[in-house]
Amino acid sequence: METFGSRAFNQQHGRVKEAARKAPVRITERGEPAFVLMSEAEYRRLSRQRPTLLDFLSDPRPEADFAFSPERVDIGSRDVDLD
């Protein structure tokens, strides 16, 4: 990841934007990472919500249908003395 100081970011914004078109760019303040600049497309890709198990199970499309028959598991119980 290319890194620019805040002064370079302010003075060379065209160069920084061009670098951000290719890959995310780190902006530092007083030598410490402070911001990341990236293209809109990269931001959308990263912020896209990943589907949950519920999303997969509730998918109404015919091609998303699958057989699911889990093995039965017998879990024994035991008496508990609460005194």
How would you describe this protein?
The protein is of the alpha+beta class and 83 residues long. It has 4 helices and 3 strands. The chain has helices spanning 6-11, 13-22, 40-47, 53-57; strands at 2-5, 25-29, 32-37. The chain has a 3-stranded mixed sheet with strand order 1-2-3. Strand 2 (25-29) and strand 3 form a beta hairpin. The chain is elongated. The model has no long low-confidence stretch (mean pLDDT 89).
Features:
83 residues, alpha+beta, 3 strands
Strand order of the largest sheet: 1-2-3
Termini gap: 62 Å
Give the % helix: 25-40%
The total of helices stands at: 4
Rg over CA atoms, rounded to whole Å, is 26 Å
Structural class, from secondary structure content? alpha+beta
Tell me the fraction of residues in β-strands, as a range. 15-25%
Shape: elongated
**What is the mean predicted local confidence, pLDDT?**
89
Largest sheet geometry: 3 strands, mixed
Q: Low-confidence parts, pLDDT < 50 over ≥5 residues? A: none
H-E string: EHHEEHH
Secondary structure tally: strands: 3
